[in-house]
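Per reviewer request, we include the raw input and output of the structure prediction for the construct analysed in the revised manuscript.
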Amino acid sequence: MDGVEDAVDAVFSHYQSQIPNKSSLYDTITTFPPKDREAIGVASKLRKRLDSFARNGDCRRCWLQKRHCICSSCRSLGGIEKVNRLFLLTHHKEICMVVDTAKIVLSSFPNTTRLVVNGMERAFQPSMGEMLDSYNDALAGRSKCLILFPTDDAKTFDVIEKEPIGVNTDNSDNRWDLIVIDGTWSQARKMHAKYFPEESKEGLYRVQLSIDAVQRLDGDDKDAKGHQLRRHPTKWREISTMEATRLLLKDIHTDGEFDKSSEAMSEFQDILNAAARRQLGPPREKEVKQ
């Protein structure tokens, strides 16, 4: 959360000084070039949300009200053996959202995970620069990077692992960087197109979950693990960001070295879902028109 606040402050500091008469930054957004308006709009909306969040005294780690806080039950799990950095490219509307699950990934692996908020570029958000550098380094064959997104050329990790990867680097670290997109499917498609326009090539891969994982998620079992609280007509698209990340990490670690962390993450989502239900109350029933 500190990184998000720092990015918002950086946007306000940069643009507020260009406004005469101490006018509201958001109210004068149309006076700025189009390329600057997204950062101003995102930062302004996040500022209101963060201020409300602070007034309510909500938990900065699990984003729940203090009486529903789950942090004592969701501990840090250390590192991820075969992953160097895990970037969570998150739509700004997900920040502080009660039902968002990416925060579980962030709190489970705080030293490995970088939270990157869309719309605030590298000048304001160091994690954005770090993610884009990782992407560009992979394109240039200097590192290895996986983007979890189901494009037409996406492959499962077992297929990717068998391909020769000629990475030109003096770095002995052979781990992967991993980019996960957090948002609705519509938001995710737009973020993927904006930030990662280049096709997959040696060193940079779109990765998808194994067929077995998708089939389990596509079942009719209402108690199936990994479904988020927000519903979608296509069952497997109810998969949470946390669950998609967990399943991919299991695909990457085939020798069982991630099993304990995987089980803990699954338990953490159950804990989060239960707490979110308590905070939000029962779901509203849709009115049936006569």
